[in-house]
Amino acid sequence: MSRKKIVAANWKMNLTQEEGNHLVQGILSGLPADVNCEVVIAAPFLFTAELVQHLKGTPVMPAAQNCYPAPSGAYTGEISADMLKKAGVKFCITGHSERRMVFHESNGFIKEKTEAILKAGMTPIFCCGESLEIREKNEQNSFVQKQLEESLFHFDGTVMRDIVIAYEPIWAIGTGVTASPEQAQEMHAFIRALLTDKYGQEVGNAVRILYGGSVKADNAEVLFNQPDVDGGLVGGASLDADNFLAIITAGN
Ligand code: 13P
Q: What is the mean pLDDT of residues 56-60?
């Protein structure tokens, strides 16, 4: 069964609106005519409305980097999943290691966020992945398994099949150290085996599992060619149109 690849940009807290506009124009003008992977851009909240406008009528889909699980209320500074959906956002990242580490988000809180994203009608891009310390102890599989079990595995198969998972080893994020294609494939196959075990072959085969962590123009193709790697979640290299376009080509 062939899964449609996804190449997703995570701009993180980078770019002014002007720079963001320029980057989106660069990406749209260089997009291959025959693009047949899904291309996603997760911009800072401030840029959401403009991003949605720019991407209208193009194959690129707007995403958000975060949301708050409550539907509305006294949560100063936060944005709900419903607000994002109504603004035209299609995907929302949840469980990113930077939010886990910097903002102390737990598996339980990420579970609530994932539920809110689904309830609003968006697709979650659920991030998981271990630190260097955990990998050095060779405990990465049980660590990632716990992240999945505590945030996702209460969903039933019809919901699970449409959730996008991104494996992002923390030691590879923003470091220039990429997981080797073998390391990525090994973890992706492990995640898929967990999904198959819990939900059966059909769901196990359907879920897209992206790799994230120092994906670049020159390593994307070999990573994306691994049998269980269904594209990438790209940070630094997505901030340059030519680099991101080359990664899209690798996913095409
Ligand atoms: P880098 O591509 O900059 O390593 O970031 C990866 C990431 O965290 C994407 O969400």
A: 96
Ligand 1 in reach of 94 Cβ (< 6 A)? no
CA dist., res. 16 & res. 2, Å (int): 38
Q: Could you tell me the pLDDT band of residue 164, with boundaries at 50, 70 and 90?
A: very high
Instruction: Considering the candidates 54, 96, 105, 188, report the single residue annotated as catalytic.
Output: 96
Task: Give me the domains of the chain, ranges plus CATH numbers.
Answer: 6-251 (3.20.20.70)
98 is catalytic: no
Q: Which amino acid is at 59?
A: P
Q: Which residues contact 106 (CB under 8 A, 6 or more apart)?
A: 100
Q: Calculate how far, in angstroms, residue 172's C-alpha sits from the geometric centre of ligand 1.
A: 8
In order, the DSSP letters of 49-68 are HHHHHHHTTSSEEEEES--B
Please give the mean pLDDT across all residues of the chain. Answer: 97
Task: Quote the CA–CA distance of 245 and 21 in Å, as a whole number.
Answer: 16
Catalytic residue among 38, 98, 130, 168: 168
69 and 112 Cβ atoms separated by less than 8 Å: yes
pLDDT digit string (tens) for 179-191? 999 999 999 999 9
Residue 182 known to be catalytic: no
Q: What is the pLDDT of residue 2?
A: 85
Q: How close is the Cα of 99 to the center of ligand 1, in Å?
A: 13
pLDDT over 70 (residue 1): no
Contact 15, 24 (CB under 8 A): no
Name the residue of 99, 214, 224, 240 whose CB sits within 8 Å of the most ligand 1 atoms, as the mutation to test its pocket.
214
